[in-house]
Amino acid sequence: MRPETPFAPTAPAVRTAPAVLTARGLAKSVPTAAGQRRQLFAHVDLDLHAGDVAAITGESGVGKSTLLNLLAGLDQPDAGNVTIGGQALSGLNEAATTAIRCRHIGFVFQAFHVLPHLDLARNVALPLVLAGAAQGPALEAARAMLDQVGLAGRGSDHPAVLSGGELQRVAIARALVHRPPLVLADEPTGNLDPDTARRILDLLLASAQQAGSAVLIVTHSEAVAQAAGRALSLSASGLAPRAPGALGA
Ligand SMILES: Nc1ncnc2c1ncn2[C@@H]1O[C@H](COP(=O)(O)OP(=O)(O)OP(=O)(O)O)[C@@H](O)[C@H]1O
């Protein structure tokens, strides 16, 4: 197991604005091979404000990625509701949910979801272009963001020639380029060496501190959990503050 890099904990945010994200009473089950449903979790409550950095840990398979998908409106809960930027997701059609996602959320997927036919700059520029930015300035901002994640001068490369860790950094650049109010990151440092992991975590923390984003990170890394202002643990009965040193993995 490789050594973990210590990160400085973030300062707690001052509550002056409404929550960026509110979740109340979320429950989710998944289908089983036998045609039944298996409950993953219930009673998940969460409030995230501008500048918050929170980490979610928990045993493998408990439903952390599933929860992130619910929070982003990519999947529907069995019960409960999610509000983003004051707008409840329940009852919205796909187009309205997508519009909220584009405007409010930067999502770092565990599987990257980088588009193979676009070069790196165009991949990273996508959230800006979808928000209506002109191509030129969007590509310029994308190249600057690639620079920040350690991929300076690689904007014309295509995803096929990148390593897993490089693809992860492209995914992070794309999630942050439009300075979204809410950043949801699924194992954002999972494929990275300790130095690059630290750099990426610093970028996520800077996004909270400078852009005022609320950042929620799913992680198995003790160092990342400690660096977040709040460390939470997901179990079948919901989200709870994590006891120090009790990392579910
Ligand atoms: N669409 C689906 N159909 C059936 N089962 C699913 C579906 N989506 C998720 N699951 C199951 O739900 C459980 C939770 O998956 P999820 O990926 O959310 O867990 P996790 O806590 O993020 O795990 P890990 O830490 O290993 O990444 C797993 O057992 C998974 O197989």
- Rounded to the nearest angstrom, the radius of gyration is 18 Å
Strand content: 15-25%
Kindly report the average pLDDT value.
90
Choose one word for the global shape.
Answer: globular
- Helix % is 25-40%
What name does CATH use for the topology?
Rossmann fold
CATH class: Alpha Beta
Bound molecules: adenosine-5'-triphosphate
Keywords: ATP-binding, Nucleotide-binding, Transport
InterPro entries: AAA+_ATPase (IPR003593), ABC_transporter-like_ATP-bd (IPR003439), ABC_transporter-like_CS (IPR017871), ABC_transpr_LolD-like (IPR015854), MacB-like_ATP-bd (IPR017911), P-loop_NTPase (IPR027417)
Protein name: ABC transporter ATP-binding protein
GO cellular component, one term: plasma membrane
Question: Can you describe what's shown?
Answer:
With 249 residues, this protein is α/β, with parallel strands linked by helices. The chain has one domain: P-loop containing nucleotide triphosphate hydrolases (Rossmann fold), CATH 3.40.50.300. The protein has seven helices and ten strands. It has helices at 64-71, 94-104, 120-130, 135-148, 164-176, 194-210, 222-227; strands spanning 21-31, 37-48, 53-57, 79-84, 87-88, 105-108, 182-186, 214-218, 230-235, 238-241. Helix 6 links the parallel strand 7 (182-186) and strand 8 (214-218). The longest helix has 17 residues, at 194-210. 41% of the residues are buried. The site of adenosine-5'-triphosphate has 11 residues, from strand 1 and helix 1. Adenosine-5'-triphosphate is lined by residues 30-31, 40, 58, 60-66. Residues 21-247 form the ABC transporter domain. This is ABC transporter ATP-binding protein. InterPro entries: AAA+_ATPase, ABC_transporter-like_ATP-bd, ABC_transporter-like_CS, ABC_transpr_LolD-like, MacB-like_ATP-bd, P-loop_NTPase.
